[in-house]
Amino acid sequence: MSIQKESSRPFHLYLSYAWNDERALDEFRTLLQRERFKPTISILSPAHSANQADDERALYHAIKTKIKFCDAVVMLGGEYVKYGRWINKELIACRDELRKPVVFVRREKSEPIPFIFKQHADTIVDWDAEAIVSAIRQLAGRRS
């Protein structure tokens, strides 16, 4: 069963820094294409100067700038410990300041969901194209 396609409305997503693993990013794009969903994707590159600096404000500002014009923020499960520095700033920017919806994607059903995501995600979905696309469309549609 496939959800109804909304070809006339482009979506712009910010993917959490945890998606900087090229393989995970490619798998995500491929998964979305199964639903014929091709959003514009923003991500803070590891090469961005704010990532190299010790200045936490510069990093936060760079994250906030990337998130500002996005319809939704997509977080990847299983990466919180490794990328907590970025994820905390992403959550503050998108939830507290910019009021962007957060979709948490759990790659493995057995994967524990960190409390911070239970607390801040608008929805938690499994690694399933239809569920992910439906969540994005529903949450981003609230803001339209």
Q: Can you characterise this structure?
A:
- The chain is an alpha/beta fold.
- The protein has a single domain (12-134), classed as 3-Layer(aba) Sandwich (Rossmann fold), CATH 3.40.50.9200.
- Helices cover 47% and strands 15% of the residues.
- It has helices at 22-33, 49-52, 56-67, 80-97, 115-120, 129-143, and strands at 12-15, 40-42, 72-76, 102-106, 123-126.
- α3 (56-67) packs across α4 (80-97).
- It comes from Cohnella rhizosphaerae.
- This is Toll/interleukin-1 receptor domain-containing protein.
- InterPro entries: ThsB__TIR-like_domain, ThsB_TIR-like_sf.
Overview in brief:
Residues 14-110 form the Thoeris protein ThsB TIR-like domain. The chain has six helices and five strands.
What are the main properties of this structure?
globular, ThsB_TIR-like_sf, 144 residues, single chain, Rossmann fold, receptor, Toll/interleukin-1 receptor domain-containing protein, 47% helix, alpha/beta
Topology, please?
Elements: E1 12-15, H1 22-33, E2 40-42, H2 49-52, H3 56-67, E3 72-76, H4 80-97, E4 102-106, H5 115-120, E5 123-126, H6 129-143
Parallel strand pairs: 1-2, 1-3, 3-4, 4-5
Helix pairs in contact: 3-4
